[in-house]
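The material for today's practical consists of a large collection of protein records. Getting from the letters to the tokens is the skill we practise here. To make this concrete, we reproduce a full record directly below:
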Amino acid sequence: MLTLFHHPMSTGSRYARLILNEYGVEAELIEEKPWARRKEFLALNPAGTLPVLLAENDVPIVGPTVIAEYLDETRGALKRNRRLLPESPIERAEVRRLVDWFLGKLDNEVTRHIARERVFKLQMAAEQGGSSPDSTAIRAARSNIRQHMKYVDWLAATRDWLGGAQPSYADMAAAAAISILDYLGEIEWADHPAARDWYSRVKSRPSFRPLLSDRVRGLSPVAHYGDLDF
């Protein structure tokens, strides 16, 4: 069995979990607090970042996009129409562009800052950076949500799935970032009907069910988080 070091409020970790679930790959989940900088974890990934997948023979595969490519090559290639990367090089390029957008731009401009201020700082000791949330950082991140959601809304309204005709890594990456914001009640879904319909379809996939069970100690999700039709 594979092992995934993750955190439930990490976009990259959720992305890796969704791909594992989509491909029906069993993996032991170990929740890691990267700010703790455990030496055993740093031995696997000196950068101290998540996620890390211990693959066959306990070889560490580090980072969400690297894990995704590894799983595509070792599992996805056998899934035919359930593969999460298209066969066409042009279509694959578009999916990879969107993955970079959601794991990079959206996460860097919104999700990781909201998660850090509202979740991580409350779990950190003072010497690790723990403190009260920085309202300025939260406002800055929130100011970027609307534009990102407008883009998701446009993609969802003009395509069957965000990356094209079939579910792909693009949908998994977007759902990973957005689901954290949704857990924290940061998205005004009424303003983004096409994105809401797309997200409802993603939430309804069996691969998403374990994420809907995630709970952060001392911080319950919004009431609709677990609802498939919200």
